[in-house]
Design a protein that fits this description.
The chain is an alpha+beta fold and 494 residues long. 35% of the residues lie in helices and 17% in strands. It has 3 domains: 8-121, no CATH class; 155-216 and 257-337 and 434-477, Nucleotidyltransferase, domain 5 (2-Layer Sandwich); 339-422, no CATH class.
Length: 494
């Protein structure tokens, strides 16, 4: 039969209050850190889950568990750092607090199979993976020559070819297996953060970064051909991969190989709590520049009311098509330069361009920034030794004018090297410093909420774990009353 939750969120609050009075009449017996979690979940309204998931159940059969209680319980398992659903189902049977906060009667809690059945209803596909198990042998990325450097892309398509292709692709959220997960995340958490003023959808400053997600210690695959029985041990025939969406990538921060996913996260860099906006799991070998495009254009299709005004990216995204696209879309890019792609280019015969995009005169001095003309897409630089009163103090002046030699750098000449604001300006540096919000968000997911402790073998379970961790990040950012209302109600009864 269909799930019914007639009382809604108020019924859940009454249930929690009544049972806490029975099992925990003295609030001081519960740790202060645990009370923070209790208050957040007591105020968390998940009524949308019940209405949204109603059609995912059959009208026949026994009465199912309330979907909002199942989702709340799974969120609690992540918040209390219980990575295994088997362990969590056991904890519900022996810990009254876990059962009560979930919305279950102590002694009548769901088993591990019920949790997996609930998560299966959140995955809108009959296959637990995004790609088929049988695939050709996967190309392994090459180890970079320098320590701390990122591996080169194994993709055969270039950014200049991929960007217009994805730009002209219509992504429909209904076609994605994680559509239900995204809908719960958007309606119950992302939209609430927007309504609370934590995210500005009209002028969104977006920071992007990738992080490796290790799913296993090695790649698991086996032959499906008869080549080995015929004495051929090094054939290139297709293999059966147990985790077809994963492959081997290079972790530049730890200088080691890993098997798993490349998680690319888009974060609202101007939010105080580094709130995530949209995630995407890619194969580990995918380059950052490609991962961003796949993630960004999906986010743009799934969240059309979000207007991006700034994009903050690291040097792995330093490619000319990015700058041209952002300029066309009136988005201000803050992208660090990559020295491998060339920086010291000749400019107007006797001038070169420094590492930060500032012209350098023939005497080796960086010119001073002397104003910008956004309407003309150009920046003005002036000789650092010139004085209107005394002229130029350089031994070999570039100009006889007391004002000194000036150089107008037009963005249309090379929008990659010359930004507005310039890279050497305080405005650019202050804005670019906010890019670390993406790194802090990734740290919260992997370290604070132990994303990699899932030990799952399917993309379905990794997406379920990931999206519920994002929900907790938003939940933690919402302000709580200075004094706990639930605690006061328990004390009043005593």
């Amino acid at each position: 039969m269909l799930p019914v939750n007639s009382g809604g969120h108020s019924a859940y609050q009454d249930f929690v209050l009544e049972n806490l009075r029975i099992y925990y009449p003295n609030p001081d017996s519960i740790a202060r850190s645990t009370w923070d979690i209790i208050d957040r979940f007591w105020n968390l309204d998940l009524s949308f889950t019940d209405s949204f998931m109603r059609d995912k159940y059959s009208v026949y059969g026994p009465k199912p568990r309330t979907p909002s209680c199942m989702q709340r319980s799974y969120l609690l398992s992540l918040d209390f750092k219980v990575s295994s659903l088997t362990d969590w189902a056991a904890q519900l049977k022996i810990n009254p607090l876990y059962a009560i906060l979930s919305g279950f009667e102590f002694g009548n809690t769901p088993g591990v199979g019920t949790f997996y059945d609930f998560l299966d209803r959140l995955w809108d596909s009959d296959d637990n993976h995004l790609s088929p198990h049988i695939q050709p042998l996967k190309t392994k990325v090459k180890k970079p020559k320098t320590k701390g450097a990122k591996a080169d892309s194994v993709e055969k398509i270039k950014v200049a070819q991929l960007l217009p292709k994805l730009e002209n692709t219509i992504f429909d959220i209904k076609d994605q297996p994680y559509a239900s997960l995204f809908s719960l995340y958007q309606n119950e958490f992302l939209n609430r953060s927007v309504s609370k003023g934590l995210i500005n959808p009209k002028a969104l400053a977006l920071a992007g970064d990738r992080t490796p997600v290790v799913t296993s210690h090695r790649e698991r695959k086996h032959r499906i051909c008869d080549c080995a029985s015929n004495g051929i041990t090094d054939c290139n025939c297709d293999r059966f991969f147990s985790q077809p969406d994963c492959d081997i990538g290079w972790d530049s921060s730890r200088d080691c190989w890993y098997h798993g996913y490349d998680l690319y996260m888009l974060v609202a860099s101007d939010s105080e709590s580094d709130l995530p906006v949209f995630p995407l799991l890619n194969s580990a070998s995918k380059h950052d520049s490609h991962s961003f495009l796949h993630t960004y254009f999906r986010m743009k299709s799934f969240l059309p009311h979000f207007n991006v005004s700034k994009v903050l990216l690291d040097s792995a995204h330093d490619a000319m098509p990015y700058y041209e696209y952002f300029r066309k879309e009136n988005i201000t890019p803050f992208i660090d330069l990559n020295e491998k792609r060339g920086i010291k280019l000749p400019y107007k015969d006797d001038f070169t361009i420094g590492k930060d995009g500032v012209p350098v005169c023939r005497e080796g001095r960086c010119m001073n920034h002397d104003g910008s003309e956004p309407s003309k897409h150009r920046i003005k630089f002036r000789c650092p030794l010139a004085s209107r009163k005394y002229g130029c103090s350089c031994e070999h002046p570039c100009s006889r004018s007391k004002y000194g030699r000036t150089v107008h750098v037009a963005m249309k000449d090379n929008p990659r090297l010359f930004n507005i604001p310039p890279r050497d300006s305080q405005e650019w540096k202050l804005e670019y410093n906010a890019r670390t919000s993406a790194e802090r968000s990734n740290k919260r997911e992997k370290v604070d909420f132990k994303l990699e402790d899932g030990r799952h073998r399917s993309t379905k379970m990794w997406y379920c774990r990931l999206y519920h961790i994002l929900m907790l990040q938003h939940l933690d950012a919402w302000d709580l009353p200075f004094e706990s209302a639930l605690r006061k109600l328990i004390l009043q009864a005593a």
